[in-house]
Every structure is written in C-alpha cells, then in structure tokens.
Amino acid sequence: MRIFSGIRASGDKTLGNYSGGYRQYAATQEQGDAVFCIVDLHSITTAYEPEGLHEATLAGAAMLFATGIDPERSIVFCQSHVQAHAEAAWLLSSVTSFGELRRMTQFKDKSADQEFVSAGLFTYPVLMAGDILLYQTDIVPVGDDQRQHVELTRDIAERFNGRYGDTFTVPKGVYPDEGARIKNLQEPERLMSTSAGNPQGVIRIVDEPDVIRKKFKTAVTDSEREVRHDPDAKPGISNLIEIMSVVAGESPAAIEARYDNSGYGQFKEDVGEAVVTLFAPIQERYRELRADEEGLRRLLGTGAEKARAASAPTLEIMVERMGFVRP
Ligand code: ATP
Ligand code: LTN
User: Fold this and answer.
1) Which ligand is the nearest neighbour of the Cα of 147?
2) pLDDT value, residue 223
3) Is 184 helix (H, G, I), strand (E, B) or coil?
4) According to the model, what pLDDT value does residue 58 have?
5) How far is ligand 2, taken at its centre, from the CA of residue 128, in Å?
C-alpha cells in the first residue's frame, strides 16, 4: 500500500499538525510504502520571506524525523527537488475546472482580506493533486481541513482516467477519529493554525514547557464546571477533551468519567502536563536534528532520488497518453 502526505514549509508546526499530521504519518508508516513531502512549492502561494522558507523547509524535515519517520523505511523529500510535481500540476490543470477551484474553502479563507491574492493560491489544489497522484497513492493521512482537497484529487484522477485511460490509483483520505480538527485554545470556534489566529491559543510543538502550561491554564472555557464533550454548547472544553484523548489515547467518554466532578482547573492543568510530556522527547530529537544541517540535507538528497525514481513512470505515462511527442 502506498501512503502519501504533504506538509507545508511554514512557521513552527502546532499541536493541530501533530494530531492531524505527524501522529498519523508515524502510524501509517507501519502499514506500507510511505512518502512524505515538504511542500515548499505550496509555501510560496501566500506572502513569505525567502530566508523564512529556507528555515521552514529544514525545520519541516527535522520535525518529520523527530516525530518518528524513519528515513530508511519511508521516503522524505522536498517538493522543489522533484520537478515532476510542477509538471504534473500543469498537466492536471487541464482536467480541473475553474468552478471546482472556486469552491475550495481553504482558498476562500486564505484569500480573505489579502491585498495580493496569487494565482498560485487559486491553483494550489491542482499541485496537491499532482503530489498525490504521481505516486499511485492509496491513502492520504491528513487533518479534516484537507478533506475537500482530497475529494477534488479523487475527482481529478477519475476524470483523467476516464479521458485518457486508467492511469492513476484513486486515493482515499484518512482522518483521525479524534483530533482531526484541533481548535485554537483562545478561539475555540476556529482551527489551530500555523499561520493564523490568536498566538496565545496556538500550541507549537517546539514551545517551552512553561509556555505550553500557561497556554492551557488560560484556555477559554465556559461558565459551567462539568468536563463534558459537547462541541456546540461547550467548544472550549470539548477541544481540551479531544486534545487529552489524542495525547492519552483514551476515548472522550473515559476522560469525562475520569474528571467527573473535578472542575476545570485540574483538568486544564493535566492536559497541559500531558502535552508537555508528549512533546519533551520530540523536542530533544528535533533540536539535535536541526543542529545538523548537513545531515538533514543529505537525508533530503537521498529522499529526492527515491522520489524521482518513484514518480517518473507515472509522469511518463501521463505525457504519452495526453498525446505529447516524446524526444
Ligand atoms: P499553514 O498555516 O502554513 O497553511 P498548516 O498547518 O495548515 O499550515 P500543514 O503544515 O501542511 O499546513 O499541515 C500538515 C497537516 O496538519 C495537514 O494534514 C493538516 O490537515 C493538519 N492540520 C493542520 N491544522 C490542523 C488542526 N488544527 N487540527 C488537525 N489537523 C490539522
Ligand atoms: N494542502 C496541504 C498540504 C499538502 C498536502 C499535499 C497534503 C500539499 N500537498 C499532498 C497531503 C497530500 C495543507 O495545506 N496542509
């Protein structure tokens, strides 16, 4: 089974990324041939600084290895190192409609209130479809915010297969049962994000333990004192229950039972402590990996070679079926 996922090279990754992303990558790696891509070409679709991109790309690689991706077993590479991705995006844009792209909520969210909206931000899902389809991917582990993009990828694959003959495996999205949409601790109505929202409510994987504790202690809840999972009536506390569920591997019901009658103060403190404990070894490995830039580049170089070899046959079939003359 082929597994593929992509992570944007942008900012310090969050507890949301851990829950919807890294945690699933490490688990799915055990199930087949996994490919993880730091999608630096996607990172330039919104305002960015070149030095920031450089740093975020290396940080993205280090975080994948720190959270348990084994470079011997899985392919980890940087999107811009494998030219097939940019080429596939162009080819697939001919089987993607303007209307489909216009409906994408990530485009609407990321373009709202921006002075400059790049054409790349609009066509972003086509690049993502190419990432996935080039590797004949069976499953795509992601958070719930990527559901619409994965569904579009399936439509693009089916349309291409219908028009030019069976070329792509039609991939399935895989979303965690708990923690597919971790919310900002200060604004529980919005997703925790690398790039938006109140920073006090965003837990970064690299945050110092005391910073994490404080962010949990000051998390927004409600005026009751019952630890109960009810996302509509109690979004703040429900988010904390989901976080505890992800971190402790327990069901929300078991957590409710454990905190029956104990009030919010102790619960918030315990969730914070559980996250600190979970992140401590990841932070340590991350620092070691990040300090060895040469080592990271070497690993990315090997990953790129493997990714080129894995994607080239699909690109070749695409161009042939589409009628291009080959040299
Ligand atoms: P940016 O803000 O730069 O767009 P991002 O965090 O949205 O970054 P990625 O780093 O590429 O984007 O996301 C990696 C994975 O984390 C994706 O599968 C995404 O669905 C998942 N993810 C992001 N935010 C959350 C969240 N709040 N809850 C659960 N999963 C999330
Ligand atoms: N769009 C995703 C990142 C991404 C991706 C992918 C995820 C780019 N290409 C391929 C899974 C598979 C995001 O914004 N998080």
Assistant:
1) 1
2) 84
3) coil
4) 96
5) 6
